[in-house]
Amino acid sequence: MKHWLPGLDTLRRYEAAWLPHDIFAGFVLATMLVPVGIAYSTASGLPGIYGLYATIVPLLAYALFGPSRILVLGPDSALAGILLGVITPLAHGDPVRAVTLAGMMAIVSGLVCILAGVARLGFVTELLSKPIRYGYMNGIALTVLISQLPKLFGFSIDSEGPLRSAIAIVSAILAGQINWVAFGIGLATLIVILLLKNHKRVPGILIAVVGATIIVGMLDLGTRYGVKVLGPLPQGLPGFVVPWITTADIVPVLLGGCAIAMVSFADTSVLSRSYAARLGARVDPNQEMVGLGAANLATGFFQGFPISSSSSRTPVAEAAGAHTQLTSVVGALAIALLLLIAPNLLQHLPNAALAAVVIAAAIGLFEVNDLRRIYRIQRWEFWLSIVCLVGVAVLGVIPGIGLAIALAIAEFLWDGWRPHSAILGRAHGVKGYHDITRYPDARRIPGLVLFRWDAPLFFANAEFFRERVLDAVATSPTPVRWLVVAAEPVTSVDVTACDVVAELDQTLHAQGIELCFAELKDPVKDKLKRFGLFAQLGELYFFPTIGVAVARYLDVNNVTWEDWEDKDVPDTGTEADRAGASGAKSM
Description:
The chain is mostly helical. The chain is built from 24 helices and 8 strands. Strands 4-3-5-6-7-8 form a 6-stranded mixed β-sheet. Strands 1-2 form a two-stranded antiparallel ribbon.
């Protein structure tokens, strides 16, 4: 119980001195949760009230199942693009159907997170490289931003997908459809939010949204100038509902739910680790996945939609003095109280202000600075990120998810399929044996090829390994007697690769060349023994270091090799290097 329900353990160890801080922080947090929840709900293609439902239930569920003592969960801008991309083409403008689809996506996401957490698969989010993750999130941010521009300008469009939406927006602007009053309110709201964004103790979003609501209500801008407003919210709390979907919706909902599980856990795990380190605590990533899954599962059955952790609301709770998840419980109860006794309080909240809240969050999602660094370091990874961004923006969110995963798999396979290899030589004044392309003046030992393979040896690269070895033999300046594979980077080997090595040995042996290995790791040696390669090659041709292999080659083949003297440079080499150098000089 202590492991699976961390909230009960926190409650058992709760200190009375924490209570006033948690209660105060909870009410402060609620003032931000309400406008943000409504804004992200409308950005996801859902009525605003469901953003509050998706705030109340997850906060209560995570307080029980979540391992972090301070993390705040709720609707998130990073998920809005995914939800919008799935819901809009399937709901066909029906809000009830949209809510049903969103609820089932939350259930799918929750089940995926829970199962992955129980199976201890918390590492899966690391499978997407940083450039691909940046490209995907930048594409999501662009999708969300474009989706909110019509609300900011005070008009509506009928189009699906970021590219078509952007074209429709430009056409509407050129046609003079802008509601300048709504645009002025939205722009002012956005400016206030951005100006106060870095002030943790100043609730910029609350100030901007409340100000916009008061102005619209007092001046009756909704009636006089056609400024669209939220309207009265339904009174009462969310009820238990099973979101049944049609068979035609299953595939997109499953794909969307899995994508949301991946994105939400990636964000949650990073944020959770950051605050755990700051508070001197430790968070189990697998339990974090279970807590996030439980929150999504609960909100899916109570008229909510998928949620994630919040990098903007969590600092608000921390700055207000939160000590435990009781802060989130108080915040959830405060919102529930609002729905019970004052549901009309926000009826004059303008849609343009809600759009400004989402746009400000979308701007924060864009990653530019680190992409500049990646461009300077490795440009092909930068362009990989751009391809991912364009894929999401042009193809849509769900195809963009598939593209991101496909690129990640391709990147992984390419690194293993065509790894780096090198022919080694002896450079004067430098200990050890080094790549002759890096050290053009390095001397090669007559009749000996030192070949380094910088990757695991498996089915995808085994033939490439064979080709590179034979190329190294063919380009040797002297007739080859031995070929020594410097195998320290080889961390694994499979059956296919071993069969290729066995065939390679026969090919080399027919040419009078002995195939040898140096610096093999013990687990890899064990596999080679089971595959019979030790017996085929001969155990004498497996050496602990390259230096020992060189010394043995010089001794067996009676080769005269004059090496540079150790005393010429400071002795900074390893013991293996000194053994190899002294062995070579002794000949």
